[in-house]
Amino acid sequence: MKKLLYCHLAVLLLPLAALAGAVTNFDFFFHVHLWPASHCNAGGADCCYVPVNNKPPADFFIHGMWPNYASCQRGLVPPVVYCSPGFCNATDSLNPSRVISSLRKTLYSSRLHAAHHQSIPFADQGRALIDNWGSLSCENRNPVNYWSDEWNEHGTCSNMDQHSYFRAALDFKARFNLTRILLRAGIVPSNENIYELSRIRDAVTEATGSAPNVECNQNEEGEIQLYLVHQCVGWRPPAPTRSSSQSSKSMMIIMDSV
Predict the structure, then answer these.
(1) Is the pLDDT of residue 31 over 90?
(2) End-to-end Cα spacing for the chain
(3) Which of 39, 150, 163, 230 is catalytic?
(4) Do the Cβ atoms of 255 and 189 come closer than 8 Å?
(5) Apex CA 12: angle with CA 3 and CA 243, to 5°?
(6) Are 193 and 225 in contact (CB under 8 A)?
(7) Is there a contact between 166 and 99 (Cβ–Cβ < 8 Å)?
(8) Tell me, what DSSP letter sits at residue 104?
(9) Which segment of the chain is annotated as a signal peptide (predicted)?
(10) Radius of gyration of the chain (CA)
(11) Of 142, 150, 237, 252, whose CB is crowded by the most CB atoms within 10 A?
(12) How far apart are CA 230 and CA 238, in angstroms?
């Protein structure tokens, strides 16, 4: 698997709602988008998204919103290294009914309309979460379990309450709709078209003001394809970081259609 991982600057100042008790120290969020087709067509992938047409959606899913450190920290027991905090409050379990109820009048789904490529408001905010932050796991098909896992590991470290955390993740996806951004740049999901990785990064950078981190995987034919897009979000710009993974600005990749 090849990755291009850089973090340059935050593009959105999230509305933070401080929790009672200790505050978690971190530098920025990674708001991570996943292209479902690239998850489902990888060899041995765990994929059980079953809409009407039995295909994954032609839109990015939220994969997570993760607090991160600008520089990784060495743990108390070497060689453990921590690049993000996790599981910061074991007593703050997710209450999905309360979250959905509190978001009912304020959330909007960013799922694209098939004809007009416009964001559509959903009265049912549970449906908005499913459409934008659904689970592709065969083993864990209940999205509430998925959201609970994300909240327990990452949300409890966000210095936000549950409403603010999920609201911020959905609002960010709606504000910077990657599917629409790439379509406007002429990058269309396809089994045949091949795009330079730099073209994808440049399109997102121009539209958002921030260079994304792009992660690729391989489909069953061994072709490199777009998989994850990490965007840096926070209340102050993090210092540039770079992973030790192989990277190439001129990598040629595909964006598989559904």
Answers:
(1) yes
(2) 21
(3) 150
(4) yes
(5) 20
(6) no
(7) yes
(8) T
(9) 1-22
(10) 18
(11) 150
(12) 14
Catalytic residue among 33, 39, 154, 163: 154
Domain boundaries, the chain: 3-254
The pLDDT value recorded for residue 245 is 35
Residue with tokens 């973090």: 7
> Are 245 and 2 spatial neighbours (Cβ–Cβ below 8 Å)?
yes
Q: Determine whether 113 is an active site residue.
A: no
Set 33, 39, 63, 230: catalytic member: 63
State residue 50's pLDDT score. 52
String of DSSP letters for 22-72: PPPP-SEEEEEEE-HHHHHTSTT-------TTSS--SSPEEEEEEEE-SS-
pLDDT digits (tens, 9 = 90+) for 110-146: 333 333 333 334 345 567 788 899 888 877 777 888 8
Measured between alpha carbons, how far is 12 from 234 in angstroms, rounded to an integer?
A: 6
Q: Is the pLDDT of residue 35 over 60?
A: yes
For residues 11 and 213, give the distance between their C-alpha atoms in angstroms, rounded to a whole number. 13
Q: Is position 63 annotated as part of the catalytic site? A: yes
Supply the pTM of this predicted model.
Answer: 0.77
Q: What integer pLDDT is reported at residue 190 of this predicted model?
A: 86
Catalytic residue status for 116:
no
Helix (H, G, I), strand (E, B) or coil at 14: coil
d(CA 62, CA 170): 8
Sign of CA dihedral 211, 215, 220, 221: positive
Length of the chain: 258
* CATH numeric code, 3-254: 3.90.730.10
- Give per-residue pLDDT as tens, 40-98: 888 776 787 655 456 677 899 999 999 999 888 777 766 777 899 999 999 999 998 88
